[in-house]
Design a protein that fits this description.
The chain is mainly beta. It is built from two helices and nine strands. The chain starts with a strand and ends in a 9-residue tail after the last strand. Its main location: plastid.
Length: 144
């Protein structure tokens, strides 16, 4: 059996900043003889918090629909100067910081995964954490 590494990541974005978190896991193919039904043993080892990327300009739409009413955000946009200056100062402070790596301890870090469908663009798996539908990042299914 061979051991491989995978990384699950997510990115959170707001008008002021973008931040991301990832969890690294090692996995082992438990049954390599059955290509269409591969059980995996997965163990998460480490989480990584990347420093937020502060946006240089707060990008708000001109109007926003709130509870069926079209609200103009122009007055708010005009008063964002001081906030944008504060955000720029924070961005300068944290821009060179390295990612924060945190070990993931305990027995609950282990899981299993069985792939029930696999092609060149899509993988459908189930495990003790639920059902997972994974699509390659450059796939056109993500644009729909």
């Amino acid at each position: 059996m061979s051991s491989l590494t995978i990384e699950n990541s997510t990115t959170l974005s707001c008008p002021v900043a973008t931040s991301s978190f990832s969890a690294t896991a090692v996995f082992e193919v438990q049954s390599p003889s059955r290509i269409q039904y591969l059980p995996f043993q997965v163990e998460f080892k480490e989480g990584t918090f990347k420093p937020p990327e502060m946006k240089s300009k707060i990008d708000l739409p001109e109007n926003m629909d709130i509870f069926g009413q079209n609200i103009s955000l122009s007055p708010l946009q005009q008063s964002l100067g001081p906030l944008e200056n504060a955000v720029a100062g924070i961005a300068r402070t944290i821009s060179g910081l390295p990612p924060l790596k945190v070990p993931i301890p305990g027995e609950r870090t282990k899981s299993w995964l069985i792939t029930t469908y696999l092609d060149s663009d899509l993988r459908i798996s189930r495990g003790d954490g639920g059902l997972f539908v994974l699509v390659k990042e450059e796939n056109s299914l993500l644009d729909q």
